[in-house]
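Contributing new complexes? Match this layout with pyridoxal-5'-phosphate.
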Amino acid sequence: MTDTAKVCAWLDQVPVATVDPLNLPEFIRAEVEVGLVRLDQIGEGLSGNKWYKLKYNLQFALQHGYRRILSFGGAYSNHLHALAWAGNRIGLETVGIIRGEPEYGQNPTLTDARRWGMQCVFVDRQTYRLRHDPEYLKSLQALYPDCWIVPEGGSNTLALQGCAEILNQNMLRDWQPDAVVLACGTGGTLAGLSAAYPDQRFLGIPVLQNAGFLNNTIQALLDSRGQRTDAEWALDLGGAFGGYGKTTEELRAFMTEFQCLTGITLDGIYTSKMLLRLIQLVELGRFQPGSKILALHTGGLQGNRGLKPR
Ligand SMILES: *Cc1c(COP(=O)(O)O)cnc(C)c1O
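Output block (do not edit by hand):
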């Protein structure tokens, strides 16, 4: 077997996440059953939902003879962290276009990324805003020849294809969930899941403020895959807790309490917001007694090293 074939075969071994029942008092009181899909426990450095989002992108780059992968993110980006790890593991160069100042290169996320060989390029906000602009992408192609460009958060059609594999038939048969609940950043993970399971109800909880625009982003991603328009997905916009990368007293307290109660660590950017909002929705009576819910722990724990101490 060639090296490429070996690496592609490795990427094809989809890790299977376990589902942990979450017996929180709020859920018991409301008679809803919640299982937490532990994507945080899979895939070494390429963990959480980023395994699925990058899998087919990495295979594509290898099979088409690209020398490197270039992508975009913030200074604590789980996506760039995972990409740097994977590039190092499979022998692809990586370039990260990062929103912010070069000092950010010293933070834990980017220190790892640089150690794994990622070339970190820092750009100001105006430049970062061009990340979907064809002319800008063309200029990056010229600066970094032979690169496969992956959008921010990894969310392209190859990522959607990978996200379809987050759930599997066994999980769905065992749980028969009335809803699958997940945190949304770019919406790629939700789009991939809904494209694969159009009859399954998905509830996305965006972790950014004023995220109504994600409805269009997700629909556009689904249109690109020829998705049925009557698919069962929706967003709840009440889970931003101060906005992207921001936190509140309530959220911090919840993370600590959840860790004490369950022994499970949540990340401060995505999964803590998703679960706290889910608890609020359960308490608001949004789920009938007897409902079964699967919540996705999409990982992201490396980002907790960037949480400011109080
Ligand atoms: C990237 C990420 C998400 C968001 O995924 P999208 O596909 O961008 O919506 C959710 N949770 C964690 C932990 C992540 O790292």
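Reviewers usually confirm one structural detail per submission. For this one: DSSP finds 13 helices and ten strands in the chain.
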